[in-house]
Specification:
Distance between the termini of chain C: 45 Å
Low-confidence stretches of chain C: 20-36
Structural class of chain B: mainly alpha
Shape of chain B: globular
Number of strands of chain C: 7
CATH topology of chain C: Rossmann fold
Helix content of chain B: 55-70%
Helix content of chain C: 25-40%
Structural class of chain C: alpha/beta
Radius of gyration of chain B: 27 Å
Number of helices of chain C: 6
Chains: A mainly alpha, B mainly alpha, C alpha/beta
Oligomer: heterotrimer
Number of domains of chain C: 1
Radius of gyration of chain C: 17 Å
Order of helices and strands of chain C: HHEHEEEHEHEEH
Low-confidence stretches of chain B: none
Distance between the termini of chain B: 61 Å
Largest sheet of chain C: 5 strands, parallel
Mean pLDDT of chain B: 89
Strand order of the largest sheet of chain B: 1-2
Number of helices of chain B: 24
Chain lengths: 313, 636, 169
């Protein structure tokens, strides 16, 4: 019981504290790939600390929803980090949760953020909200169908148990469905976390923004919470990709040594994924907004193919 | 006087709830009054399924009646119809023979027709009433046909006899009965493509009646479908389940797609009812398929998911309609493009509408999430059916359900955001006032119900399992976990609504505390919205609902087939200066164009051709009479 | 895609160390030590064009490129003044831009810095005294530092920015 609680708390701490580092490493890598020295990987921590010291400027047009949204967003990400299997070796009394709960928790955050975008009454915020909910809605089917393909092999949909099952029986993953589902999930990750080619997180052109447009009104500690939640979302999606599709490496250890080892293994996998993401982001141009549904439809086709692969192969 | 009547209706609802709970947990009774109704007499039977639907009715009627005390006030119009409506709705689940059912059903339809015609003067209302009357009677015709066939084949008009005799009927006979009954009940439930009346009738009725029609009456279509398929006819061939599943999935996706481009607040909610009925049908279809394959536990799961969603939808749809009614009452318009900023003028209504929006978008930890989760789980275990073709169909069904969930959230961001947030877009919205206390009490009651249903699935699911078990007949009891966690299908999935809610609560409290501990600045300054330094901000600069729905219009343009109308008035002296621009981007309904128009044109054509028989000549009519007399004498 | 990747990897990092020289004019001394302590290694900049003929903007644009790379010092350009700690104002403030500049300044949360760029920003530069110009930036909003030049080179800009922050430590 104590062990379960300790592991749960450790998960939240690892994701919460490590997410800005993940974003920092990604930014540094992207800079190096274009010939710049780039910011330090620890830069996001300096940014967050500075933001906490600034005052908050709130528009008179907004309501309590604008002020509550950063807390709701950060809270949903923290709760989501309880559900996503971060370490591989987990005691059986883990926090129950599956991909459906996870996706709808993310939708809860998106719901409030979209409302906050509309709340200020600016055209940018409304545009960001409209695009963000469109992309989120179109990405939903792919995630659930891709994880369904995995759940069919593992005979459970509980995330922790899927990971456990695959790590115990690696041969279950010897199926084209695994790679197809991984590809589909990777594309959806780009859409949901707002990375190129779906959305450019560093753009200043409001007409090209999706996620950033909703955040234009936030300042100070609210902005810190929203940026932190955004980093946690990226971290959680990459952790899912790493642990759900490649759950090997921790060797099924239990006991107090399992957590540091789990973190190391996860860090290794995340570094590989971050390198892949950085290479993709620096070589691919952003898609026109109304081409994004075509990309998402393509990822959905991959997900359906992975289901068929499980059924037929 | 009106207040008394609505109070009486609320009391009837409470009584129905008590009766319903009694029935759900095993209490049964029958009532028979032979002379009241021809062809078999009045027969009422209470069993678990009937009890459950009485509870659903009560959940809708009680708050709606309380609301009506506040909104309809002293108005006498529609009182009698309302009471008849409520009582007939309560009689439908209890009916135990054909005539009782038909009379209760028809009373319900007539009463609601009168209530839809509430504003007798408006053209829109008249058309809504007309379409509603035609569709509901077409459905009744199918129902009567199906029931009379069953009665003829089994030799009795009592449902208990049908239940006993159904295994003896041939497969073809049962399928014919199923199709007729399903068509009739689906028409009442508002399933695509029989849904045309819903978006017309629900907005035309006053809000408390819309809440009942959307939240309760269409559920009786679901009740009928459950009765007909599981109870009277028993397990059928797989194509029944596949048909229901596919129709449900299509209905849910198309329903929400039409809701996305709708800017009349009540029409938007009506389309969402179509969507949610689709979700309920997905659960029922899965249940039918599993029962046909002998997988009792999974069939139970499917039916439990459907029943839970029925109850949840009654709660949050009634809440949303009552909230919409309060908004319409305060601003005098149903068009969300003329609203805005209402959250500051109607805080209670806004908060309740927010709870309803979050519930219908299936966001944890509210009730919509739990029933959609259970529906997903029912669909996700289709590998046990061991038929690859069905697995692909199920995968598409799962994708449809997931798409619906996302699109519903998008639509309610639009509905809540444009209606309540930012600046008011019209004078009427700026002058809006909060709803009177009775309306507020009703909405808060429903909001609390939504939260309770969302946090307490560990108690609701076992209760529903007994109802579903009684419906499916002779199923072994299935354990669903303990008070904290739901365990579904021996650990296929586990979930704890209480734990998630507690975790969210702890996080929401810990974050501000953590910020304070971290020494975050507490200063806050109010200023205007950032608009690139432009001078002043008006409501014209806000995002509109049409613009919000634009990405969806583009992506799904094969369904919407939008047309564009652009009218520009130039300054008389130069084409480079524009005085006025009018832009319209309406969508067309493919059902109107491809289904109803051709059918109606065909019927008109046949009627026109048949007019030739009525020539007006008395001699010809006498000749007809002679001819028919001769033919009958020959045949006899 | 692969060809671009190969080119990027082959070219390597071309960032140059910042220039040591800077000549700076100070306008006003309104910063307290807490501002520098609060900024630490993170300064987010919002560039505001108050009527500039864009020569300074082009030089500022060079700062984000690989040679001058201001991100390595924790400086970063942002899209909204709500996100900014520092307003980098270019150009003589034209009459039409005076009010928007003031609103932008009000929209920026405290603590904040204002840096006027170029001779135009200092006092109107080439356009000083024109009927369309309200004056230098200091005539509209309080200015903390000026980076003179017409236009200042990216090296001078970078040195000026760093100096404006470092001097406050």
């Amino acid at each position: 019981m104590i062990a379960a609680i300790a592991v749960a708390v450790a998960q939240v701490i690892v994701v919460g504290a490590g997410a800005p580092l993940l974003v920092g490493v990604l930014r540094t890598l992207k800079a190096r790939l274009v010939g710049r020295r780039g910011p330090s990987p620890w830069q996001p921590y300096a940014d967050l600390r500075k933001l906490l010291a600034k005052e908050v400027v709130v528009s008179t047009t907004t309501s309590w929803i604008f002020r509550a949204t950063p807390y709701v967003l950060a809270a949903t990400m923290l709760v989501a980090s309880l559900i996503v299997p971060v370490f591989l070796a987990r005691p059986p009394l883990a926090f129950p949760g599956d991909v459906i709960l996870l996706m709808y928790l993310f939708l809860l955050g998106t719901f409030f953020l979209a409302l906050a975008g509309l709340d200020a009454g600016s055209a940018f915020g409304g545009m960001g909200s409209s695009r963000e909910v469109a992309v989120a809605a179109l990405a939903e089917p792919t995630i659930i169908v891709a994880v369904f393909a995995l759940a069919m092999r593992a005979e459970t949909i509980d995330l922790a148990r899927v990971v456990e099952r695959f790590s115990r029986e690696p041969l279950l993953a010897a199926n084209p469905a695994h790679l197809l589902a991984f590809a589909a999930f990777f594309i959806v990750m780009l859409a949901e976390t707002g990375r190129l080619p779906v959305d450019n997180p560093a753009t200043h052109l409001e007409l090209t923004m999706i996620h950033e447009a909703m955040v234009l009104e936030y300042s100070g500690r609210y902005l810190a919470l929203v940026e932190w939640a955004s980093a946690m979302k990226l971290c959680l999606f990459m952790t899912l990709l790493a642990n759900l599709f490649f759950p090997w490496g921790a060797g099924g250890l239990t006991g107090p040594a399992a957590i540091p080892l789990g973190v190391l293994v996860l860090a290794g996998k995340l570094v590989l994924l971050v390198i892949a993401l950085a290479v993709l982001e620096t070589t691919v141009a952003k898609l026109r907004l109304f081409r994004v549904p075509e990309l998402l439809a393509g990822s959905f086709a991959l997900a359906i193919l992975s289901v068929m692969a499980v059924v037929l192969v | 006087m009106a207040r008394l009547a609505y109070g009486l209706a609320a009391l009837v609802a409470v009584g129905a709830a008590a009766l319903g709970l009694h029935g759900m947990f095993g209490g049964a009774f029958t009532l028979q009054i032979g002379w009241l109704v021809p062809l078999g007499g009045l027969q009422l039977t209470l069993d678990p399924l009937a009890g459950f639907f009485l509870l659903v009715i009560a959940v809708g009627v009680a708050p709606a009646s309380v609301y009506a005390i506040g909104s309809a006030g002293g108005a006498r119009r529609g009182l009698g119809a309302y009471l008849v409506f409520v009582v007939s709705m309560c009689l439908v689940p209890l009916a135990a023979n054909m005539m009782t059912f038909a009379i209760a059903w028809e009373l319900m339809s007539l009463a609601s027709y009168l209530l839809v015609l509430h504003e007798r003067e408006s053209r829109e209302s008249l058309r809504a009433g007309w379409v509603y009357a035609v569709m509901t009677h077409a459905g009744l015709a199918c129902l009567l046909a199906g029931m009379m066939l069953l009665g003829a084949w089994t030799g009795s008009s009592e449902f208990a006899d049908w239940r006993a005799a159904a295994p003896g009927l041939g497969g073809g006979a049962r399928s014919v009965a199923f199709v007729l009954l399903a068509l009739g009940f689906a028409g009442k439930a508002g399933v695509i493509p029989l849904h045309v009346w819903l978006p017309l009738a629900h907005p035309a009725a006053p809000s408390h009646v819309s809440a009942l029609m959307s939240g309760v009456m269409i559920k009786l279509g679901v009740y009928g479908l459950l009765r007909a398929s599981f109870d009277w006819l028993g397990a059928g061939p797989p194509w029944w389940g596949v048909a229901v599943l596919i129709v449900g999935a299509v209905s849910s996706v198309i329903g929400v797609l039409y809701a996305l481009v709708e800017h009349d607040l009540k029409k938007l909610l009506a389309f969402h009812s179509i969507e949610n009925i689709g979700i309920i049908l997905i659960g029922i279809g899965a249940g039918l398929l599993y029962q046909g394959a002998g997988l009792e536990a999974l069939a139970l799961l499917g039916v439990v998911a459907a029943l839970y969603h029925t109850l949840n939808h009654a709660a949050f749809k009634a809440l949303l309609f009552l909230g919409a009614g309060a908004v319409v009452h305060a601003t005098g318009t149903r068009n969300i493009e003329e609203m805005g900023g209402l959250i500051k003028r109607m805080p209670w209504t806004a908060a309740c509408f927010l709870v309803g929006s979050a519930a219908i978008s299936a966001l944890p930890p509210l009730n919509g999430f739990v029933s959609e989760w259970l529906t997903f789980l029912a669909l996700l275990q289709n590998t046990h059916l061991a038929r690859p073709s069905l697995s692909l169909a199920f995968a598409l069904g799962i994708a449809g359900l997931a798409l619906t969930g996302g699109l519903a959230m998008a639509c309610f961001v639009k509905a809540f955001g444009i209606t309540f947030l930012a600046l008011p877009r019209s004078e009427a919205a700026a002058r809006a006032h909060e709803a009177p206390p009775a309306m507020r009490i009703a909405m808060v009651l429903l909001a609390v119900t939504c939260a309770a249903l969302g946090l307490g699935p560990t108690w609701v699911v076992p209760a529903l399992a007994t109802v579903a078990g009684a419906l499916l007949g002779d199923t072994p009891p299935v354990a669903f976990g303990d008070w904290l966690t739901l365990r579904v299908s021996e650990g296929f999935a586990t979930g704890s609504a209480l734990a998630i809610a507690a975790a969210l609560g702890v996080a929401l409290v810990a974050l501000p505390l953590g910020l304070r501990v971290a020494g975050a600045s507490r200063r806050r300054r109010a200023y205007e919205t950032w608009g690139c330094g432009r001078i002043g901000q008006t409501a014209r600069m806000e995002y509109t609902a049409t613009a919000f729905a634009n990405p969806f219009k583009r992506v799904f343009d094969f369904l919407y087939r939008p047309t564009k109308k652009l009218d520009i008035d130039f300054h008389p002296e130069s084409r480079f200066f524009v005085e006025r621009i009018e832009y319209e981007n309406p969508t067309r309904s493919i059902f109107d164009d491809w289904l109803y128009r051709p059918v109606l044109d065909g019927l008109s054509g046949v009627a026109r051709a048949a007019r030739a028989i009525q020539s007006g000549s008395a001699n010809l009519y006498l000749a007809y009479i002679l001819a028919v007399l001769l033919i009958m004498l020959v045949l006899a | 895609m692969l060809r671009q990747l190969w080119t990027a990897l082959r070219t390597g990092i071309v960032t140059e160390p910042p220039a040591r020289v800077s000549d700076l004019e100070r306008v006003g001394e309104r910063l307290a030590a807490e501002i520098t302590r609060a900024f630490g290694r993170s300064l987010h900049i919002r560039q505001v064009d108050a009527g500039s003929p864009n020569c300074c903007e082009i030089e500022i644009g060079g700062l984000t490129g690989p040679h001058y790379d201001l991100e390595r010092f924790g400086l970063h350009f942002v899209a909204s003044p709500r996100h900014a700690d520092c307003l980098l104002v270019t150009g003589p403030v034209t009459r039409n831009m005076a009010e928007p500049l003031r609103r932008t300044w009000e929209a920026t949360p405290d603590p904040k810095l204002v840096i006027a760029v170029g001779d135009c920003g200092r006092d109107g530069g080439l356009f000083r005294g024109s009927y369309a110009v309200a004056g230098g930036v200091a005539d509209v909003i309080p200015v903390d530092a000026v980076i003179p030049g017409c236009p200042p080179s990216p090296a001078a800009l970078l040195a000026g920015l760093l100096d404006a922050i470092r001097r406050r430590r």
